[in-house]
């Protein structure tokens, strides 16, 4: 404890078991939080700021984590930061940056260069199509398809019923199928 002008502040120590618990529970989900923030904010700088703010909030409110599903809990914090602190309802194309910075893509060294270029082109088209989705549909598809969250986890993160999650995913998939009809054969998408 540190006292300063009649204010007492607790200082966490490196050997504090709570600090170790936080690191084990939350830190593995930073990449997932950044990916979600990137799609919700539309640019790298805001995504980085949102994740930093989410980490601060997670530290502050770590004692409220009741179950061991830290991933959904942390993604909920990231989502709230993005929707409250950063404008995620911008008109399409306004100050938008592609999410290429999310991470390197592994390329099979045996792959032919023309196939690699074609694959990268398709990946970029998919990213662009996801960027065109409205924020609520975009977050649902990112959480399900890129973060592999279950419907229940998505419902917890977005604070909506599972049925709403399923509806949003269905609408997002249908819009993606329309946007990517010349790239990928989706078959019948309801």
Quick overview of this protein structure:
This protein is mainly alpha-helical and 190 residues long. It contains eight helices and two strands. A two-stranded antiparallel sheet has the order 1-2.
Descriptors:
Rna Polymerase Sigma Factor, Chain: A; 59% helix; mainly alpha; 190 residues; globular; Arc Repressor Mutant, subunit A
Molecular structure report:
With 190 residues, the protein is mainly α. It has two domains: 1-97, RNA polymerase sigma factor, region 2, helix turn helix motif (Rna Polymerase Sigma Factor, Chain: A, Orthogonal Bundle); 98-190, Arc Repressor Mutant, subunit A (Orthogonal Bundle). It has helices spanning 17-25, 30-41, 44-60, 70-85, 113-132, 135-146, 151-158, 162-179, and strands at residues 2-4, 7-9. The chain is globular. The relative contact order is 0.11.
């Amino acid at each position: 404890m540190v006292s300063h002008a009649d204010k007492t502040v607790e200082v966490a120590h490196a050997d504090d078991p709570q600090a170790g618990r936080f690191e084990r529970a939350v830190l593995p989900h930073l990449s997932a939080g950044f990916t979600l923030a990137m799609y919700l904010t539309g640019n790298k700088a805001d995504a980085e700021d949102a994740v930093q703010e989410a980490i601060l909030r997670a530290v502050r409110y770590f004692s409220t984590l009741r179950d061991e599903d830290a991933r959904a809990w942390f993604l909920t914090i990231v989502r709230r930061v993005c929707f409250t602190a950063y404008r995620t309802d911008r008109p399409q194309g306004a100050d938008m940056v592609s999410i290429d910075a999310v991470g390197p893509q592994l390329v099979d060294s045996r792959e032919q260069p023309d196939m690699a270029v074609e694959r990268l082109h398709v990946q970029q088209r998919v990213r662009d199509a996801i960027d065109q989705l409205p924020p609520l549909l975009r977050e649902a598809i990112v959480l399900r398809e890129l973060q592999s969250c279950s419907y229940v986890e998505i419902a917890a993160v977005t604070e909506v019923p599972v049925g709403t999650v399923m509806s949003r995913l269905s609408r997002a998939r249908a819009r993606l199928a329309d946007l990517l009809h010349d790239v990928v054969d989706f078959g019948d998408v309801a």
